[in-house]
Design a protein that fits this description.
single chain, about 90 residues, mainly alpha, 3 helices, about 85% helix, elongated
Length: about 90
């Protein structure tokens, strides 16, 4: 009985600590969007911390990874097309 209560307390405390730390890092990243700083690095770190305990953060992080991947792929395709045009003399 005591062990079960202790387990629930540990679980709740861990969830609170992860939430506070992750939310703090995420908010610092959002502030960095308008102030100097690496916001595009800090925001995913905050979401990664939050995703340890929260499903919604995991979904946001997945969506962010997919959008960055597609943007990177589009950029790579554009650069390849520009290079092909430059080489062929168009």
């Amino acid at each position: 009985m005591i062990k079960r209560g202790l387990h629930l307390t540990y679980k709740a405390a861990r969830r609170i600590v992860v939430g506070v730390v992750g939310l703090t890092v995420l908010l610092i990243g959002v502030v960095m969007l308008v102030t100097p700083g690496p916001a595009l690095v800090v925001i995913p770190v905050g979401l990664a911390i939050l995703s340890i305990e929260f499903t919604w953060a995991r979904a946001w992080l997945k969506r962010m990874r997919e959008s960055i991947s597609s943007l990177n792929s589009n950029n790579l395709n554009d650069r390849a097309e520009t290079h092909r045009n430059r080489v062929s003399g168009d």
